[in-house]
Structures are given as structure tokens and as C-alpha cells.
Design brief:
Blueprint: E1 2-5, E2 8-11, E3 18-20, E4 43-45, E5 53-54, E6 65-67, E7 75-76, E8 87-89
Parallel strand pairs: 3-4, 4-6, 5-7, 6-8
Antiparallel strand pairs: 1-2
Length: 93
Amino acid sequence: MSVYYKGKEFRVEEKNKYLNISQVGKLIFNEVEGIDKLIDLQELSIWGNKITDIEGLDNLKNLKHLLLFDNKISKIEGLGNLSELRILDLSRN
């Protein structure tokens, strides 16, 4: 499975259910196409992208690790349904 951002494909590593969208420049999170469909995703890494806010992760109910460090996040919403979340890294925001 894949997601797309500005025409570039980012593939989910199936074995570990891991997606890495790190260091792509200024990423506008709500423009990442298909991320809401990754219901089996367990780890999401989107560090170093100058992201300012996060939303739309409600469907990722199996997410265990969310790595958002080294961005510019001042607002984060929609994590209340992520009952499996064990690691949330928001450092350097």
C-alpha cells in the first residue's frame, strides 16, 4: 500500500507496517493522499518536515509509534481514538 504527496509515492513497509515520510521539505499533512486508509499501520514517521499541524489520523487505530519530532507543530488533534499508541515523539517542535 502507498500514500502520495505532490505526485511522489511513499510505500508502506508491509512486514513491519511502517511508513516513513520524513525530510521531504515543507509537508502539508492534509495533502497526503491515502493516509486515512492505512488502518493496519503501526508506525508512522514524519519528522523533519516543517509541519505546523496534524489532523486526520483518527482511522489509524493500530498505530503504536508516531514520530513527529523536528517539525513546527503547534496544534495536534484527532489522537483520542489511537488507543494502541505507545510512543508519541513531539520533541523539537
